[in-house]
Amino acid sequence: MSDDSQGLVDKAQAWWNTRIIDIHPGEIGIRGYPIQELIGRISFPDMIWLMTRGELPSKGQSKLLEAALVASVDHGPHAPSIAIARMAVTCGVDLNNAVASGVNVLGDIHGGPGQQCMELYEEVRAASGNDLAASTDRVLDSYIARNGKIIPGFGHRFHPVDPRVAPLFALVESASRDGTVSGNYARIGREVEAALRRRTGKAIPMNIDGITAVIFSELGFPPPMGRGLFILSRSVGILSHAWEQTQLNQRIKGPMPKEIPYTYSGPERRSLDPDR
């Protein structure tokens, strides 16, 4: 092989560089582990951790990650990501298209607050000194000035108290006691909740995004991964609803029954100028 040809081959091999997987005929290695040694021996949350972090988690870390993933799977057919997937199915698309349609709307508002809450916690952590309450108040002042009064991870349009928070918080506290996590972000989350009560005079409880932000931060995931992990979790709900919808044989199901009209707010009926 000429030097030029060898250079071209070397360049082609270097085009994709990954530390995640190594594949050869008859061999699959995940982060150095032969796949046959992982199958049947590690859980799916373990595999998520290995893929995204490079090493296997401890049992305590895996338990916390799994709990957060389980809690975020679904929130009913009124959730936009779920509703969109179900409507997509009635338009005749395949299951993969329906799931992709649902995932594609998990943006900054529906799907992103967990990541944003992790970023807020990180601001508080970076600013906190001896007085966590004062630091939290200062960070909230700055956050609200930049982003408005809605604080991601707190309050819920449907639940006065989100039923998923207490059991997840109990798991975090247990993990903190046994040394699996530090507990620092749990304290920050509680302090943000307390600061919101001080500011507003009413309870604005932590929601699922707030508590999973605590868990993902405690486990050492960077904020953008918070959204990615939520998407992994919610994809299970999207898939389940899309599959259920395929069994109903309904066609072109819109966001409301046809008997319920939408509101028209345009010009009143008019005629086109005959001279036009």
TrEMBL record:
<dbReference type="GO" id="GO:0016829">
    <property type="term" value="F:lyase activity"/>
</dbReference>
<keyword id="KW-0808">Transferase</keyword>
<dbReference type="Pfam" id="PF00285">
    <property type="entry name" value="Citrate_synt"/>
</dbReference>
<comment type="similarity">
    <text>Belongs to the citrate synthase family.</text>
</comment>
<dbReference type="GO" id="GO:0036440">
    <property type="term" value="F:citrate synthase activity"/>
</dbReference>
<dbReference type="GO" id="GO:0006099">
    <property type="term" value="P:tricarboxylic acid cycle"/>
</dbReference>
<feature type="region of interest" description="Disordered">
    <location>
        <begin position="255"/>
        <end position="276"/>
    </location>
</feature>
<keyword id="KW-0456">Lyase</keyword>
<dbReference type="InterPro" id="IPR002020">
    <property type="entry name" value="Citrate_synthase"/>
</dbReference>
<dbReference type="InterPro" id="IPR016143">
    <property type="entry name" value="Citrate_synth-like_sm_a-sub"/>
</dbReference>
<protein>
    <recommendedName>
        <fullName>citrate synthase (unknown stereospecificity)</fullName>
        <ecNumber>2.3.3.16</ecNumber>
    </recommendedName>
</protein>
<comment type="pathway">
    <text>Carbohydrate metabolism; tricarboxylic acid cycle; isocitrate from oxaloacetate: step 1/2.</text>
</comment>
<feature type="compositionally biased region" description="Basic and acidic residues">
    <location>
        <begin position="267"/>
        <end position="276"/>
    </location>
</feature>
<dbReference type="InterPro" id="IPR016142">
    <property type="entry name" value="Citrate_synth-like_lrg_a-sub"/>
</dbReference>
<dbReference type="InterPro" id="IPR036969">
    <property type="entry name" value="Citrate_synthase_sf"/>
</dbReference>
<dbReference type="GO" id="GO:0005829">
    <property type="term" value="C:cytosol"/>
</dbReference>
<dbReference type="GO" id="GO:0005975">
    <property type="term" value="P:carbohydrate metabolic process"/>
</dbReference>
